[in-house]
Amino acid sequence: MTSGLSERNRHLLVLAIGLVLLVGLPWVVDVVTLLELTIYIVYALFALSLGFIWGHGGILCFGQAAFFGLGAYTYAVAAINVGESSGPFLLAILLPAAFAALLGAMMFYGRLSDVYLGVITLVVALILFKFVNSTANETYVIGDARLGGFNGIPGFPTLNWPGDAGSPLMPDEMFYLAMGLLIAVYFGLHGLLRSRFGRIVVAIRENETRAELLGYDVRLYKTAVFAIGGGIAGLAGVLFANWGNFVSPGVFGLAQSATAIIWVIVGGLGTLIGPIVGAVLIQFLTTLLGQQSVVNNAFVLGAILVLVVLLLPKGLMPTLGQLLSRGRRK
Amino acid sequence: MDFAVVVIVEILYAVASLALIAAGLAVVFGMMRVINLAHGEFLMLGGYTAIVSVKAGINIYVAMLVVAPIVVGAIGLIVERLVIRFLYGRMLDTMLATWGLSLLLTGLVTMIFGNTTTGISTPIAGYRVGAYQLSGYNLFIIAAGFLVMAGILLALRYTRAGLIARGAMQSSDMASGLGHNPQRIYMITFTVGAALSGLAGGILAPLTGLTPTTGGLYVAKAFITVISGGAAVVAGTLSSATLFGTITQVVTLSSTPVWGDVAMLIAAVILLRLLPQGITGRFFSRQV
Questions:
Q1: Is the separation of the CB atoms in B240 and B287 below 8 Å?
Q2: Which positions ≥6 away from B73 have C-beta within 8 Å?
Q3: Measured distance CA(B280)–CA(B271) in Å, rounded
Q4: Interface touch A302/B105, C-beta < 8 Å
Q5: Which tens digits make up the pLDDT trace of A233-265?
Q6: So what's the ipTM on this one?
Q7: Across the interface, do B93 and A119 touch by the CB < 8 Å criterion?
Q8: CA-based nearest distance B211→chain A, Å
């Protein structure tokens, strides 16, 4: 955190940019572009969930897509059964958070080290993927909702104004919601990190043994961080499901988890703005690459990941911050 | 009785193919503590090498057992020199960089061969056990799996190169004090691991059609087998391959292959929770 700006000014700058984008963008761009931007924001939120648990909690989760997918599927299934969207919306945040708490408790109370943590989270996402992928049979139903296997679930009721199932959100309203939520989560996490809880979490990341010897229950704090990350990923999943009005097992896929890791590492580990910038940049690049057919998309993403790890291990935003402050001192 | 034979052969086959899939990763992780997430792509490249060689008119056994390991070993050497050697001791960075590598290789193969399935047919005919028809190639895989494991064990235990390699992994300072170059030993070990992956990819290629994304199917299984096995290369891989192969095959035979895979993954999560250092962290800890 060695940017040239003071922390307070940096927050004001981010807030100003966020609000300008929130209010201004729908006036400037057409609906199609706005839809495209909405998915960037959803991805940014997903990246933020991983950036928080990895960059501040020190938990590298190789299967963050498990919670993203769980959020998307919970919303889809609950919305089909309930119709009105407020309940499913909340449920689809709480369920992934609870699942993350359970999984986290199992891992952290078992004192698994980094690598094994990576494997278990990866495996859990894989189990969910395989399970959901194999539910094409008509016997797999939850209430009125068929799980659909690899066909996914199309055409569930999308988000509506709270309490009024008859008025679904329009594309521009979806944008306001997503952008508003992103800003809220960003500053919510900042507030959390400044609180006593957040400081202890960062202390644990810095030196787990020392924090433990000072009397903090490391296992409990890590589980809580993991659950918060799971809830945010679930929220991103809900928005994702509503954006396309479609969910398929791909939301649990390895590719989804891998992309999230790339966003965070490219944007910068240990910051909250880094994952957002990383997600938007990489997704923009992916869209650009999608318009040509000479170079394969995965090839470029893979090359970026390798190069960033080798040359820019801190990621884009911290490195930029360092350059800025160095330039100022001269 | 016939059914019992079939079940035993199928279980042995599942164990052997898991051991084959995991062998290269086990050498690289067990010896060097490098987790190579591009391992699946090495297998995939081995498969493509074998298929391309067979289509170019080379004998299928030469293609699988000679060409595939040499080509993938060479690729492994390049990867080690360009990427891995800068990241020794930084486990998480290695995981990230090799994950990038796996995407890169998948993309590269897609650009060259297209996103289509290619394959070759198995060179061994099937045989009958009572009322059951079995694939003869399964027996070849069982033999290959156990030969590869035995080969690694013998090389590590009874050859001078194996002794030096094990020594360098335990204490690279001491090894370099005795006049060996640890960098060179790491390089060779990684290349051998890659060549083993190429061999396994070549041997497994006739079983299923190959696509550029085939590696993803392998990497999770290999990863789980090796990590659950723990640090001992041969004893760990064999014990976890036996455990998971049996579980997968028993569940598969009594329900569907999907549930077989799910059962294996759940077993792995439970196992790692109970034995965080893997099987050989607790048992057989003095083995190679």
A1: no
A2: B191, B192, B194, B195, B198
A3: 12
A4: yes
A5: 999 999 999 998 999 998 998 778 888 988 998
A6: 0.82
A7: no
A8: 14
